[in-house]
Amino acid sequence: MTAWQRLQRLPRAEQRAAQDALLQRYVREYLYPFSPYYRALFDANGVRPEHIKTVDDLRRLPLSTKQDLLPTDDDPQRFKQFILQPDPASIKKAWPLKKKLPLLWQKWTQGTEAVRRRIRDEFAPSFMTFTTGRSAEPVPFFYSPHDIRNLHDTGSRLVDVMGLDPDYKIANVFPYAPHLAFWQVFFAGQETGMMALSTGGGKVMGSSGDLRAITRLRAEALIGVPGYVYHLLRRAVAEGLDLSSIRCVVLGAERVPPGLKAKIVEMLQATGATDVSVFGTYGFTEARMAFAECPTKDNAYTGYHLYPDLAIFEVINPETGEVVPDGEDGELVFTPLKARASTVFRYRTGDRVRGGLQYDPCPHCGRTVPRISSNLTRESSLKDLQLLKVKGTLVNLEDAAMLLGAMPEVEEWQIELRKKDDDPHEVDEMVVHLSVKQGCSEEAATKSVQELFKSRLEISPNQVEFLGLDSMLAKIGMETEMKEKRFLDARPKV
Q: I need a surface site. Which of 64, 99, 365, 431 has the fewest CB within 10 A?
């Protein structure tokens, strides 16, 4: 039995005790001695490493945000302050004798250079990704070889949680880019030995080329961004292609709208596929890992199963920063337990979770690890697109996106923000651009959107505009953008 297999069945109390021990070790032996940013933060707040004994003690420390990582005029490479930077003196001081003895033995038997290689293997940046940059300037995030091995491990855990057959062939249609999603799938394939075809998500071979490759491979698993997977399957149906080999679809990088799973199953059935499982995943660059739902008979939203030996999640009140009780809504905060190279700590993800963290055993798979509710709002990507004044109502655009994505008559969509009369000082207006299914009345679709938005968001779009499917695909950048442009901010700047 592997460590992960054992961990996912442990009682909560034992998982928490293990987290406390891992947290103590990480703070004392890695974070405080080797992180310039967090050592200064600890000192500024009068917190010593020995003060952090349990998960609850994290509350002694202030929260970190993406803003802390961004360059300033005084420090244009501020992100380097978040890279663990050990040296012989700090290692000698921070590490206990049982950790130093293997290094001393290696030095005596193999020489100083062997020790230097060992330290580089654990800490030295050797791989880089970027935050997506939707809400702020993209920030580089570095991996050491140690972190890459963790990425292999978490990839294997994803496959385990989703119950995928190791003999499956994977079609990875995430864009080939320095972002977590593509590389998590890539390394998952390497770790599990699953045959993986990486197409570039339409940016390399185009969607027609992707479909040709998938049909020739006879892939059993299709993995990508929800919007592009939907687009790809829609083309497959239109072209009468045979995708009967597909057994599962894994969606990541964006929240999976309610109703989309059913749409995907319906389209795959039209291509000959049967008994298809659809999974959502959750991850973000700063975590350098992703989490998945487990399988159900009806493709229900099961929550994202966590790895308590690799990370601690808290849920806070986004206004006060205080930790909320179990099961309550709030913002996710992330703390790693085994990270090297770039490292954040008590990091505000900007993502809001409804239903908080769930600690009861999963009713579908029985795992006892904590779960994040699937009802997750990626507000970190929408900070610059919050509607402050639309007929006096504050609107969460992520909720609007979920509504549009679930409408059966809608093929594609985009939400545009404008200022009334293009006056920077006027109120915001919302325009919904739609492409609807063939045979669907534009008048009926407009009425449905207006009524749905009014009942669920307490506001209706100022205008609904219709485009043909090809024009809409070009407008959102389906095959040209790393992520489709679902939100367009056309408001003039003051």
A: 99
Sign of CA dihedral 160, 163, 164, 166: positive
Amino acid 158: pLDDT = 94
Q: Total structural domains in the chain?
A: 1
**Is 448 contained in some domain?**
yes
Whether 494 is covered by a domain: the verdict is no
Q: Within a domain: residue 423? A: yes
Quick: pLDDT tens for 429-480: 788 898 888 888 888 888 888 888 877 776 778 888 898 888 888 888 887 7
Are the C-beta atoms of 129 and 79 separated by less than 8 Å? no
Residue 409's domain comprises 383-489
Residue 206, CA distances (Å) to 79, 180, 218, 235, 251 in order: 35, 22, 18, 12, 19
pTM: 0.83
| CA nearest neighbour of 309 among 27, 96, 21, 50 | 21
Cβ-based neighbours of 161, under 8 Å, separated by 6 or more = 291, 292, 293, 294, 305, 365, 367
Can you give the CATH number for the domain in which 446 is found?
3.30.300.30
Any domain includes 19: no
Structure tokens belonging to residue 148: 């890459």
Model confidence pLDDT, tens digit, residues 131-153: 765 545 678 899 999 999 999 99
Q: Compute the CA torsion angle 86, 89, 94, 98 (nearest 10 deg).
A: 100
Report pLDDT for 381: 44
Mutual orientation of helices 180-192 and 145-162 as an angle, nearest 10°? Answer: 80
